[in-house]
Design brief:
A: alpha/beta; Aldehyde Dehydrogenase, Chain A, domain 2; 16% strand; globular; B: alpha/beta; TIM Barrel; Aldolase_TIM (chain B)
Chain lengths: 474, 309
Amino acid sequence: MFEYAPAPESRSVVDIAGSYGLFIDGAFDGGKDGNVFKTVNPATEEVLAEVAAAGPEDVDRAVAAARRAFGPWSALPGAERAKYLFRIARIIQERSRELAVLESLDNGKPIKESRDVDLPLVAAHFFYYAGWADKLAYAGFGPDPRPIGVTGQVIPWNFPLLMLAWKIAPALATGNTVVLKPAETTPLSALFFADVCRQAELPPGVVNIVTGAGDTGAYLVQHPDVNKVAFTGSTEVGREIARAVAGTGKRLTLELGGKAANIVFDDAPIDQAVEGIVNGIFFNQGHVCCAGSRLLVQESVADELLASLKRRMATLRVGDPLDKNTDIGAINSAAQLTRITELSEIGASEGAERWSPECTLPDRGFWFAPTIFTGVTQAHRIAREEIFGPVLSVLTFRTPEEAVAKANNTPYGLSAGIWTEKGSRILAVADKLRAGVVWANTFNKFDPASPFGGYKESGYGREGGRHGLEAYLA
Amino acid sequence: MTVTAAAELSDLRSFLHGLPGVDKVGVEARAAALATRSIKTSSKAKAIDLAIRMVDLTTLEGADTPGKVRALCAKARRPDPADPTCPPAAAICVYPAMVKVAAEALAGSGVHLASVATAFPSGQAPLEVKLADTREAVADGADEIDMVISRGAFLAGEYTRVFDEIAAVKEACGGAHLKVILETGELATYDNIRRASWLAMLAGADFIKTSTGKVTVNATLPITLVMLEAVRDFRARHGRIIGVKPAGGIKTTKDAIKYLVLINETVGDDWLSPDRFRFGASSLLNDLLMQRTKLTTGHYAGPDYFTLD
């Protein structure tokens, strides 16, 4: 056997302080009431840093700073705002190795992914929206579109820096100011981003970062002086936010859960379909709202495809996120691990057949082996509920009509995949799928120019592309 | 021939066109992803020695002379005169006219002797000429024959003709191993490469090889990946293990290690051996030796410390 020797990325490229404050009005300070929480490396359970927990007064200060900054920032010519965004994009590229290592430490995702996917996309997003800043009059939202004001943004832990970019880049390009709350388990890259803003000499108050748990986020979205709320996270929290802002006149976009169908027809390019299935569900440990968590495979090729899939899964390398050869890293938190474990046990008890390749998981930290369930039907909970982990439910279908019916038979509608060599089938099926993104013969591909968002319980509004400007313009 | 093989032959065209398609974007992305594997320290040392043992050290020039071929044979037997622990190359690969010289120079060394035959590189000659070419090379001492398929016939859809030619050459080989060169750069699409791989394997190839090294596009990682998938699936169906040989354009240790990673994560252990995988290359060997010396001594030696042959 050709064993790969450990190939760890150096941790020394990032310097993590013992404690971090809030970033308000261009400066870091401790929270008013001195509350802190710890953020840990999920691969080792080692504490990385203590971070201030923002209370109501802190959020008030951050919103006030954003309000003060809004006037001058929105009055800048678009080309001037673009300069700041281009500068931020370039600094992110220059510091990408440091930020990638930081992201892998705080989140648990493999360095291969933070280095080759997250960071390039983060920079690309800022570059993309920098380009729009002086062309808003031509974006199709009227001759003189105006910014909305102060935006309150709450982001999840699965792509901490990328979700930050998705939120902040269009907000700034359109002339809004930002108060952003990163997820409780992954606050560090947002705080490093605050430093990037300082380095870029972004005017104080244009971007404010308030760290904390759910109550900080709840206070932020309910704040009366916030004009627009953008949230990415669970459908459950999304519902609470929708209730909280209902009737307030605040603008709202929600990007929530998913239970995407990845549909493999009998004429699919099998080897590449297997790669797409693996990428669809095991990319980022399955912590992806648009993950292809339901595999719908045509019954006539199911056995062959599953044999190929299992063979491929046996080559997945699970372990140290900082090892350059790791394919699957750590589960982000103990709480998430518990949820994945529980739903998987339910899958087995409901009669689905569970399979994982042999793999040795580290002793410390939060880990879950890549898992597939076969013999799953629409009646199983693992076919209906979002697991948000490396767990794939495999269902079969007989005809294209049945595939579409099963794919759409979910309260969610964020993404879907189609695998077939037949172009006409791609178009016909994509047309009938109720999902915001439909990938054909690929999966989990992102580009800042492409709008992203869901149907039904997957949320509303679009992020990315020209469409992504709309949520930030009046 | 097994029953399934016979059935596949009864309608070669529908069998080949019934193989699953290859998605170009997908296969190239997969090859590119595997190329990012980081192979360091002890695994790099092992990979380098394995790669040296897989090299078919090749000279295929109009200007080849007995002197040049003897020098290359000496290099294959003992690639690094300064280090007796360095393994020999797998084989020497020469034109049929040079086989006799090479056979003498390699006698008793265990290094295989391959000869390109069948009107290499174009394959545009009558079958009888190709067979005579093959028989001559084997009679002169070649134990491996690298034949070219008739790409013209393949592209014209005359699969049976290509099949029959390969089968006839295989017969002419007698005990010699047959490597079938698909000339993937001229087949152009991955679907064609997969079909040609199956065609060659069904017709009796012991190895399938990418290229002659004489056209613009030679071996690439995605092409080799498609061929590895074909030999993997062929074994699953017929139980016979077919080797793979990328040739042309593989020049550095880094390149070679990417191919070994490809094998490791596509077909696995059974192909990590010179009996199942070869590199058709000339300049690659010196780069492998240079990296090998760097790993053992800790510093790079200049090109003058490695033999030019």
